[in-house]
Amino acid sequence: MIRSTGISRDAVQISTYLDDTYLEQADTRVIAVGHRDGAPWVAVEHCPFHPQGGGQPADRGWLEDAKIVPVRDRESGLIVAMAPEGGSLPLFAEGQQVRARIDPKARMAHAALHTAGHLVEAVGRMQGWEMVSNNHFPGQARIEFQVPETETRLADPDGRGEATAILRASVAAAIADDLPVFARYEGEGRRVVHLHDLHAAPCGGTHVRSLGDLAEVVLPTLKVKKGRVRVSYTAAHRSL
């Protein structure tokens, strides 16, 4: 829940995408309107839109029939709906009843990639590696690890192939076990996403319900550069 500052004391926003990845629409009301860099924006009370952040791209969606892109407004702290580049928004008024909808195909693609990224991080940590960066964008998805200086097998192609095979087998086993994926609010209200008891990490992204929802998970042979291991991957959501 996000309370805006400097807009209205009643402008309280509930980020429904954090509670239900699979929620496609919300009948809600406008709680604030404003401008960002000269362009108009609209904020709704029950917000199903995930903004870009945490390595995950923004949702695509609509407010009524207007196509929008969600952005987190730094000044207010609200997730606001803006027109895509070259588009425009109709006039909305505070208190107006509206329907907010996401593009479910894009949402499922993003949720699958983000969850698969957590899984890749988990199996990398099982090798003693420490994650240093991530990217869950389609076509760019990867996890980068720092490896201990004692990790010498990655210096040659055979060793990298062996390490890749271990990662692939661990990923496949977790998916076959269909481990549940869930979020809990823990110390100081942090949202922590769990892959059952395999892995846990603070995260504000969208995720599949269980690892069995992942399909087409592919890990090419990992790459090593300057002591870092890059594990690229692809993933999709299984047919609903």
UniProtKB/TrEMBL annotation:
Domain of life: Bacteria
Gene3D superfamilies per record: 2.40.30.130, Threonyl-trna Synthetase, Chain A, domain 2 (3.30.980.10)
InterPro entries on file: Alanyl-tRNA_Editing_Enzymes, Thr/Ala-tRNA-synth_IIc_edit, Transl_B-barrel_sf
SUPFAM superfamilies: ThrRS/AlaRS common domain (SSF55186), Translation proteins (SSF50447)
Descriptive protein name: Alanyl-tRNA editing protein
